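Case study 2.
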Amino acid sequence: MTPDEPPLVVVGDALLDIDLRGGSRPGPDGRAPVLDDPSAWHRPGGAALAAWLAARDGHPVVLVTAAAEDTAGRRLAALLRDSVTLVRLPLRGTTPVKSRVQADGRTVLRVDSGAGTADPDAPHERAAAAIAAAGAVLVADYGRGVAALPGVRAALAAAAEHTPVVWDPHPRGPDPVPGAWVVTPNAGEAGVAEDDPDRARRRAAALARRWKARSAAVTLGARGAVWAPAAGAGGRHFPAPEDLGAEDACGAGDRFAACVAGALRRGAAVPDAVAEGVQAASRFVAHGAAGSAAALGPMAGALPLGLGESAEELVERVRRSGGRVVAAGGCFDVLHAGHVSLLRRARSLGDCLVVCVNGDATVRARKGPDRPLNAVQDRVRVLSALDCVDAVTVFDEPTPAEVIDRLRPDVWVKGGDYAAGDLPEAGVVAGYGGEITILPLLPGHSTTGLVAAMRSTRG
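Prediction:
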């Protein structure tokens, strides 16, 4: 992040969400099902989810939140470490955790713990400075006090005079600051039915006037969203692009608000940003909603490929919903900052990223008999832990042509100084109408140089 690239600043209450997933069978007493061999999947929740999603969109993101130094707080910070800059405020109590018990893909129970709230006496100077430097601000209020801190509110009100401020409210939270560019309650919070867009649009205008905001957008679940300005007539209904029916919509509001704020940061008009948010939230729900943001926790024995599905299953699901598939390939023997930079940029080119990894035999053939340093199982586990990687697959052929032909990604990414036409797989990509993107490597970072330096030091 550079001074001429002001970040998207997310202000609000961060939670840790945990999905306890497993297969179920009838219990011996016939009353409660038994969850067999569950695995714990962790994901950022609340304002942390909104920040994480905005970072996945390619924005530099700063999260202003109250955080505790407990086990859940450290786990949450670890999930955000590589994508979000944290400005921590003190939290009174323990990190809020929402645990969902899921049997055969269906949530059967939610357990909430941690009653931590923002310390009202906390110094606010760092938070205010972050807000003042923002290119856009998203307030993701989950009713735990960050949005109510007087110093934070003063900074938000000042920012709203010249910087886009999106406010996602909570029933237990404070009113938005005057001047907010768009407030985004859901239908229940706005007091309207999801199946009545005309009434919702009128209600959006009334809420904007009540809150002294410039406009409001009421989200209507599977029916999309409506938007209306506070002043004058007008407003629009933005239908969802597809009927999502009973799909799990957990986190859809965060996805919507994060996309709206990100679009405003890029200079979009508010109605255009709302339309973009509806599209993004619909894709998010179709792709698994907040569950797709989960990382396997310590209860499981090994990391799976991607988020519990094969590369082929992921590609089929994304393509079925109209998404754009990106794939990248390489050895990834010793993962370093250059690799992470490449993969993050690759992920920003579409709706999912599949990493195609050379098997051990092909690495030896290319790099020599003393490589790889890390066996393919370990390389897969490390890559799967990256938030920008959705799935990993291994190929043992001399080139990735066969795996590319099987997956047929819309975009094939390579890092380095290649010419696209010189790649051995170029003909396969061209044959099905895909495109090749060459991304420059991060200067000064290479596995070969790193291995040579390690051996030199050891010698």
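Residues 270-286 form the longest helix (17 residues).
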